Amino acid sequence: MARKKNYEDNDVIEKATELFWRNGYENTSMSLLESTMGINKFSIYSSFGSKQGVFLRSLRCYRNKLSPVVIKLKHSNDGRAAIKQYFYDCLATYTDAICSKGCLMTNTRAELSSHVNGETNAEILNEIESFVHYQKQLFIEKLLADGEDIISATKKANYLIIAKQAISGASKVHSLHEINDFIDITFSSI
Amino acid sequence: MARKKNYEDNDVIEKATELFWRNGYENTSMSLLESTMGINKFSIYSSFGSKQGVFLRSLRCYRNKLSPVVIKLKHSNDGRAAIKQYFYDCLATYTDAICSKGCLMTNTRAELSSHVNGETNAEILNEIESFVHYQKQLFIEKLLADGEDIISATKKANYLIIAKQAISGASKVHSLHEINDFIDITFSSI
DNA sequence: CTCATTTCTAACCAGTCGTTTAGAAACAAC
DNA sequence: GTTGTTTCTAAACGACTGGTTAGAAATGAG
User: Is there a contact between B170 and A165 (Cβ–Cβ < 8 Å)?
Assistant: First the structure.
C-alpha cells in the first residue's frame, strides 16, 4: 500500500557484479555503483544494507554465472580430461570483448586476504573458501574415477587448485598463447 | 651550507618497502608511510617527489633483496634443478615470522594491471615487466643447458613463469604442504 | 479525495586520500 | 652574530570515501 520501486534487485546486482569483477572491491566506490546500477545511494542502502551487502549479492550472482560450467564438470565421466575442459571453460568466462577480468572469487581472495581488517570481510572470504573446497572435492572425485589412488588424487588436486588460480591471475597479464602452454603442460604431468 | 637532514634515504626506503610489500600500493597511505618511515610528509615529498616515487625506490630496494637468489640461479649449472631451487629460494623470501607477503612485484602487477588509470602506473609496471622478461630468459637458458631444444624450452619457460607467479599468490592463502605439492608436480612434468 | 507508507532526490556527514605550504628551527659561511 | 639556505613541524588544501537523512514524489487502501 505504498509506492513501488522502479528497479529489480537482480537487475541492478547484475550490473554491480560486472563492476566489482572489473575493478575489484576496494576500487569500486559507492558513487561508481550509483551510476552503474542506475539507482542512488538511498536505494542501494535500503535494498542491500551496505557496500559489503551489495558485494555478497554480487558474489552469488557470479556463482550463478559459473554454475553451468561447474555442473558440466560434476556430471562428466571424462576424468582429468573433464578437468582440463573445466579450465578452458572457466578461462572463457574470465574474458570479455575488452579484456580479461580473471575470476571474481580469486581476485577477491587475493585482494582481501592480505588486509588486517579481517573481521569485516570474513563473511566474503568464507563464501569463497567454501567454493574452493567444493571445487577441490570435484577434482579429487574426477581423479579417483580416473583410477587414481586417494593419496595421489589429493596431491594432484592441491596442484590443480593452485594451477587454476594461476590461470585467473595470468589471464590478466599474459597472452592466450602463454596460457595455453601453461594448461597443456599442467595436464601433461598429472 | 644549510641544515643537514637527519635520515638516510636508503634507511627510510627500507621501511617503506616492508610496508608496501605487506599492504600493497593503494592500501598504503601517506600517513602510514609517515609513521613507518619515521619522517613526515614534507620530507617524503622533498626526497622522493610523490607516493609513486617512494614506491619506485621501494621496488629497487626489493630487487636488491632478491638479487643474491637471482645471481645464484644465473651462475648455477644444474639446469632445471637450479630453477626448482630458485622457486624454493623465492618462496623463502616471501615468508617472514608473521605471514607470507608473496612477491612484491607479482602483487603489484596484479594490483595495478587491472586499473584503467594506466598512464600513471606505467613506469612501475614497466619495471616489473622487464624483470619478468629477464627471469624468463634465465629459465630458457637453464633449460637449453639441460639439453632442451629452443621450442620446448620456450614453452616450458612460459609454463614456469606462470607457475612461479602462482606460488607468490598461493603462499598467501595455502599451506606450505599444498605449495610443496605444487612445486613437486610442477617440476615432475618438465 | 485523504492519508499512511514507501521510494525517490539531493544535500550532507565525518573521515581519509595524496599533496602543498607557511613559518619555525637548524645549520654553514662570512 | 648575521645572513642565506635547507629541513623541519603542523596545519591546511580540495577531492573523494562509505554512509545518512530531510523532504518531495509516488502509490495503494479507505
Answer: yes
What pLDDT, on a 0 to 100 scale, did the predictor assign at position A116?
60
The minimal CB distance from B181 to the residues A158, A169, A172 is found for A158
pLDDT tens, residue by residue, B53-64: 999 999 999 999
**For an interface test with A, which of B101, B106, B164, B173 has the most A Cβ atoms less than 10 Å from its Cβ?**
B173
Q: Number of structural domains, chain B?
A: 1
- Do the domain assignments include residue B78? yes
Measured distance CA(B115)–CA(B97) in Å, rounded: 32
- Say yes or no for a CB contact (<8 Å) between A163 and B182: yes
CATH number at residue B142: 1.10.357.10
**Which letter, b or e, does each residue of A62-84 get, where b requires 16 or more Cβ atoms within 10 Å of its Cβ?**
beeebeebbeebeebeebbebbb
Among B residues 115-134, those touching chain A with beta carbons less than 8 Å apart: 115
Please indicate, yes or no, if residue A2 is contained in any of the structural domains.
no
Please check whether residue A36 is in contact with residue A19, taking contact to mean a CB–CB distance below 8 angstroms. yes
| Residue B4 covered by a domain | no
Are B156 and B148 contacting, i.e. CB atoms less than 8 angstroms apart? Answer: yes
C-alpha cell at A106: 580469486
Asked if B113's CB is within 8 angstroms of A173's CB, the reply is yes
Instruction: Please say whether the dihedral angle defined by the alpha carbons of residues A20, A23, A25 and A30, taken in this order, is positive or negative.
Output: negative
**Position A4 in a domain:** no
Domain coverage including residue B70: 9-188
Whether B162 sits inside 8 A of A170 (CB atoms) is yes
Measured distance CA(B178)–CA(B180) in Å, rounded: 5
% residues pLDDT > 90 (chain A): 86
Cell numbers for A56: 555478497
Write the DSSP assignment of B15-52 as a string of letters.
HHHHHHHHH-STTS-HHHHHHHHTS-HHHHHHHHSSHH
pLDDT of B12 above 70: yes
Instruction: Tell me which chain B residue has its CA closest to the CA of residue A28.
Output: B115
Which chain A residues have a beta carbon less than 8 Å from that of B22? 114
Q: Cα A14 to chain center, whole Å?
A: 14
- Residue B146 DSSP code: T
- Please report which helix (H) or strand (E) contains residue A95, including its range: none
